[in-house]
């Protein structure tokens, strides 16, 4: 018999404890969890997804892959996700191989790995506004200083703005988003090239929406053989119609991949994620089949919005900014009341709408006509 005496049972914690009572990291006090509203409405055009689900043969293959992964779920998955990375390299082309690719749960996690590895205390990351709203959060979570510089008035970027921004802020890492979220503006590869020729900073080109552009092959990936400090990030969440699968990736020199491998959690990509993503990649033509339609939908929508006297930021992505409304929240609310969810983001007075199915686009147009007519009646 042991002479062990259990410690007195601690008092049951007060179930009403609030965040303010907890020893939260000081820099997180007052912060809110990020996220676009997830509302159950008929027409969701707020997070730039591909609205088309996979075809039934793809669904069946995914189910088979999950079933096979389940038969070995007692074992850890391949920590390096080699097969998936080889498939991603093959999909991207540009002579890339698996050791040029890193993958994680969405490009959100890829970016977090990059900032954990190359940012951190005393390091600064620079982006250009209006910018994707998650960037400051990746920076905050990795204790990296986040600084911004404005894009040009038409939301484009040139090498001078980027290089001057690096000089003024002393940035160690620079983020160039093309097409940019929320504006849809592209930055040509030659601009990225000129930046790389004139900086020591790590240059991350976020190409989350690349497949929607006029010339998707015109990618910063072409510069990878020449520049070891270049990282191109991509995601399967947008054109690839795989947002629920959570798979983002990067292409870079193998040394950059090694840096990400230092900071990742072991086994961060589940066996199921790897297996289902590989099925999606094996069916790439089918998964990407609607990309051309979505591109056309958003181009037509831009023309239509302009024809109604609205201001539109020219976009090459699967979304666009439109406005300007003296009270954009009221327009957002009016659309929501008619079952259409868009995003309240971007410069003052603008809303962002994603490309949907033809029926969804029609519902959006009808709802907007009604909302604007109502507001006119109210003298707004
Ligand atoms: C510019 C940009 N980068 C990255 C992401 C992250 O996508 P995910 O984490 O789904 O791969 C998004 C998502 O909206 C985005 O707009």
Describe the structure.
The mean pLDDT is 95. The chain folds into two domains: 43-52 and 290-377, Aspartate Aminotransferase, domain 1 (Alpha-Beta Complex); 56-286, Type I PLP-dependent aspartate aminotransferase-like (Major domain) (Aspartate Aminotransferase, domain 2, 3-Layer(aba) Sandwich), CATH 3.40.640. It has helices spanning 56-70, 82-92, 106-118, 135-141, 159-169, 189-197, 254-263, 271-282, 284-287, 291-307, 328-337, 358-377; strands at 43-44, 101-104, 124-129, 145-150, 173-177, 202-206, 230-235, 248-252, 311-312, 319-323, 340-341, 351-354. It is 37% helix and 14% strand. Helix 1 runs antiparallel to helix 8 (271-282), helix 2 packs parallel to helix 8 and helix 5 runs parallel beside helix 6. The relative contact order is 0.15. It contains twelve helices and twelve strands. It is of the alpha/beta class. The chain has a seven-stranded mixed β-sheet with strand order 2-8-7-6-5-3-4, with helices on both faces. Strands 9-10-12 form a three-stranded antiparallel β-sheet, covered by helices on one side. A two-stranded parallel ribbon has the order 1-11. The protein is globular, with a radius of gyration of 23 Å. Strand 5, helix 6 (189-197) and strand 6 form a beta-alpha-beta unit. The chain binds pyridoxal-5'-phosphate. Residues 48, 106-108, 132, 177, 181, 206, 208, 235, 237, 243, 248 line the site of pyridoxal-5'-phosphate.
